[in-house]
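Q: Hand in one record:
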Amino acid sequence: MDTLKIEVELPRDMLVALNITASEASQVAKELVVLELFREGEISGGKAAEILGLTKFQFMSLLATRDISYLDLDGRSLQDDVQTAMDAGRPAVK
């Protein structure tokens, strides 16, 4: 993966508010950006896990700690997806 290093200046009191050290700030910022991109649907869970160096299970656990849903389906979308999967398993009618 081709990477780019970005430097961000933050007020020192933000570290206190986040309860992190200066050495942890870079990783936390990366995590927050990746989580937001995932939440907005810009990247997949697999890609987000890869960027953060986590397994998919670890990424799903991280989402749970942040109260972010892995699946963003409303009831109707879930019903449609289940119906599509069921239809895919049926033989075609001639």
